[in-house]
Amino acid sequence: MNTPERNICQQCEIPMHHLANFGSNKDGTINTEYCRSCYSRGVFVDRGISLEEKIELKIECD
């Protein structure tokens, strides 16, 4: 499902075009400020990787 607006992750600045790209809040709802690579289940995901590596991870997930 596509999102009606252009959303950009507030942490890594990756565009989020589909609902599956958005992060999730602790209660399971969609968080529209951060992508799933940066924010999941209400906490920031820091895998100790660089922005470039996060971008690669995002590309691989799509």
What does this structure look like?
It is a single chain. The protein has one domain (2-61). The protein has one helix at 51-61; strands at 2-8, 15-18, 22-24, 30-35, 39-40, 43-44. The chain is globular, with a radius of gyration of 11 Å. Helix content is 18%, strand content 39%. The chain is an alpha+beta fold and 62 residues long. The protein contains one helix and six strands, in the order E-E-E-E-E-E-H. A two-stranded antiparallel ribbon has the order 1-2.
Concise description?
The protein has one helix at residues 51-61, and strands at residues 2-8, 15-18, 22-24, 30-35, 39-40, 43-44.
> What spatial order of strands do you see in the largest sheet?
1-2
Strand content: 35-45%
Using DSSP, what is the number of strands?
A: 6
Q: What is the helical fraction, as a range of percent?
A: 10-25%
Global Rg: 11 Å
**Biggest β-sheet: count, sense, barrel?**
2 strands, antiparallel
Q: Output the structural class.
A: alpha+beta
Overall number of structural domains: 1
Return residue spans where pLDDT drops below 50 for at least 5 consecutive residues: none
SSE order in H/E notation?
Answer: EEEEEEH
Number of helices: 1
Layout of helices and strands:
Layout: E1 2-8, E2 15-18, E3 22-24, E4 30-35, E5 39-40, E6 43-44, H1 51-61
Antiparallel strand pairs: 1-2, 3-4, 5-6
